[in-house]
Amino acid sequence: MSAEFENFVEQVDTACSDDEYQQKAVMTAERLAEYNAKKANKTGSVAMSNIIFDFKPCADTINVNDIETAVRAIAMDGLVWGGAKILPVGFGINTLQISCVVEDEKVSTDALEDYIANLDELVQSVDVIAFNKV
Protein backbone atom coordinates (compact mmCIF):
# COMPACT_ATOMS: atom_id res chain seq x y z
CA MET A 1 0.00 0.00 0.00
CA SER A 2 1.10 3.50 -0.65
CA ALA A 3 2.04 5.86 2.15
CA GLU A 4 -0.72 8.26 1.08
CA PHE A 5 -3.38 5.54 1.40
CA GLU A 6 -2.11 4.49 4.84
CA ASN A 7 -2.14 8.13 5.95
CA PHE A 8 -5.73 8.50 4.72
CA VAL A 9 -6.83 5.37 6.60
CA GLU A 10 -5.19 6.69 9.78
CA GLN A 11 -7.02 10.01 9.43
CA VAL A 12 -10.35 8.28 8.97
CA ASP A 13 -9.74 6.01 11.96
CA THR A 14 -8.80 8.90 14.22
CA ALA A 15 -11.59 11.18 12.94
CA CYS A 16 -14.26 9.03 14.61
CA SER A 17 -13.85 8.17 18.25
CA ASP A 18 -15.18 5.04 19.93
CA ASP A 19 -17.95 7.13 21.49
CA GLU A 20 -19.16 8.20 18.05
CA TYR A 21 -19.20 4.59 16.88
CA GLN A 22 -21.19 3.59 19.96
CA GLN A 23 -23.65 6.44 19.44
CA LYS A 24 -24.17 5.41 15.82
CA ALA A 25 -24.67 1.80 16.87
CA VAL A 26 -27.22 2.81 19.53
CA MET A 27 -29.08 5.04 17.05
CA THR A 28 -29.17 2.24 14.51
CA ALA A 29 -30.50 -0.22 17.09
CA GLU A 30 -33.18 2.26 18.21
CA ARG A 31 -34.30 2.89 14.64
CA LEU A 32 -34.43 -0.83 13.96
CA ALA A 33 -36.52 -1.38 17.11
CA GLU A 34 -38.92 1.41 16.07
CA TYR A 35 -39.29 -0.10 12.60
CA ASN A 36 -39.98 -3.58 13.98
CA ALA A 37 -42.53 -2.16 16.46
CA LYS A 38 -44.36 -0.30 13.69
CA LYS A 39 -44.32 -3.40 11.53
CA ALA A 40 -45.70 -5.54 14.37
CA ASN A 41 -48.48 -3.03 15.14
CA LYS A 42 -49.47 -2.67 11.52
CA THR A 43 -53.23 -3.13 11.37
CA GLY A 44 -53.68 -2.64 7.65
CA SER A 45 -55.34 -5.16 5.41
CA VAL A 46 -53.68 -8.52 5.01
CA ALA A 47 -52.53 -9.27 1.48
CA MET A 48 -54.07 -12.52 0.28
CA SER A 49 -54.00 -14.51 -2.93
CA ASN A 50 -56.39 -17.01 -4.45
CA ILE A 51 -54.64 -19.83 -6.30
CA ILE A 52 -56.23 -22.56 -8.41
CA PHE A 53 -54.10 -25.66 -8.99
CA ASP A 54 -54.65 -28.36 -11.61
CA PHE A 55 -53.31 -31.78 -10.54
CA LYS A 56 -52.66 -34.49 -13.10
CA PRO A 57 -52.34 -38.05 -11.77
CA CYS A 58 -49.21 -40.03 -12.59
CA ALA A 59 -51.24 -43.04 -13.81
CA ASP A 60 -54.79 -43.82 -14.88
CA THR A 61 -55.09 -46.16 -11.89
CA ILE A 62 -54.67 -43.30 -9.38
CA ASN A 63 -57.91 -42.25 -7.71
CA VAL A 64 -58.27 -38.47 -7.91
CA ASN A 65 -59.96 -38.47 -4.49
CA ASP A 66 -56.70 -39.81 -3.02
CA ILE A 67 -54.89 -36.83 -4.54
CA GLU A 68 -57.44 -34.47 -3.00
CA THR A 69 -57.02 -36.08 0.42
CA ALA A 70 -53.23 -35.80 0.21
CA VAL A 71 -53.37 -32.18 -0.93
CA ARG A 72 -55.81 -31.17 1.81
CA ALA A 73 -53.46 -32.79 4.35
CA ILE A 74 -50.95 -30.01 3.60
CA ALA A 75 -51.50 -27.57 6.45
CA MET A 76 -49.76 -24.24 6.93
CA ASP A 77 -50.59 -21.16 8.97
CA GLY A 78 -52.32 -18.78 6.55
CA LEU A 79 -53.43 -21.49 4.09
CA VAL A 80 -57.11 -22.34 3.56
CA TRP A 81 -58.12 -24.95 1.00
CA GLY A 82 -61.26 -24.19 -0.99
CA GLY A 83 -63.47 -26.08 -3.36
CA ALA A 84 -62.35 -28.86 -5.65
CA LYS A 85 -63.71 -30.35 -8.84
CA ILE A 86 -62.80 -33.37 -10.90
CA LEU A 87 -62.53 -32.78 -14.64
CA PRO A 88 -62.40 -35.55 -17.24
CA VAL A 89 -59.49 -35.35 -19.68
CA GLY A 90 -60.11 -38.43 -21.77
CA PHE A 91 -59.51 -42.18 -21.88
CA GLY A 92 -60.74 -42.50 -18.29
CA ILE A 93 -58.20 -40.03 -16.92
CA ASN A 94 -59.37 -37.19 -14.69
CA THR A 95 -57.64 -34.12 -13.31
CA LEU A 96 -58.27 -32.38 -10.02
CA GLN A 97 -58.70 -28.63 -9.77
CA ILE A 98 -58.54 -27.27 -6.25
CA SER A 99 -58.44 -23.71 -5.01
CA CYS A 100 -56.81 -22.22 -1.95
CA VAL A 101 -56.46 -18.83 -0.32
CA VAL A 102 -53.07 -17.90 1.15
CA GLU A 103 -51.89 -15.01 3.28
CA ASP A 104 -48.95 -13.64 1.31
CA GLU A 105 -46.79 -12.83 4.35
CA LYS A 106 -47.31 -16.21 6.04
CA VAL A 107 -47.31 -18.65 3.12
CA SER A 108 -44.68 -18.76 0.45
CA THR A 109 -46.12 -20.09 -2.78
CA ASP A 110 -42.74 -21.67 -3.50
CA ALA A 111 -42.88 -23.59 -0.21
CA LEU A 112 -46.44 -24.68 -0.99
CA GLU A 113 -45.37 -25.94 -4.41
CA ASP A 114 -42.48 -27.83 -2.77
CA TYR A 115 -44.93 -29.61 -0.46
CA ILE A 116 -47.09 -30.47 -3.45
CA ALA A 117 -44.05 -31.75 -5.37
CA ASN A 118 -43.50 -34.29 -2.58
CA LEU A 119 -46.70 -36.03 -3.71
CA ASP A 120 -44.81 -37.52 -6.65
CA GLU A 121 -46.25 -41.03 -6.11
CA LEU A 122 -49.72 -39.63 -6.86
CA VAL A 123 -49.19 -36.52 -8.95
CA GLN A 124 -47.43 -36.34 -12.30
CA SER A 125 -47.61 -32.56 -12.64
CA VAL A 126 -49.22 -29.50 -11.13
CA ASP A 127 -50.20 -26.39 -13.03
CA VAL A 128 -51.29 -23.05 -11.64
CA ILE A 129 -54.52 -22.25 -13.47
CA ALA A 130 -55.17 -18.91 -11.77
CA PHE A 131 -53.30 -16.67 -9.33
CA ASN A 132 -55.30 -13.65 -8.18
CA LYS A 133 -54.85 -11.12 -5.41
CA VAL A 134 -57.84 -10.98 -3.08
From TrEMBL:
Keywords assigned: Elongation factor, Protein biosynthesis
Domain Translation elongation factor EF1B beta/delta subunit guanine nucleotide exchange: 48-134
Top-level division of the source organism's lineage: Eukaryota
Designated name of the protein: Translation elongation factor EF1B beta/delta subunit guanine nucleotide exchange domain-containing protein
Species name: Pristionchus entomophagus
UniProt-listed PROSITE patterns: EF1BD_2
Cellular component annotations (GO), alphabetically ordered: cytosol; eukaryotic translation elongation factor 1 complex
Similarity annotation: Belongs to the EF-1-beta/EF-1-delta family.
Signal peptide, first to last residue: none
A Pfam entry, by short name: EF1_GNE
One Gene Ontology term of the molecular function aspect: guanyl-nucleotide exchange factor activity
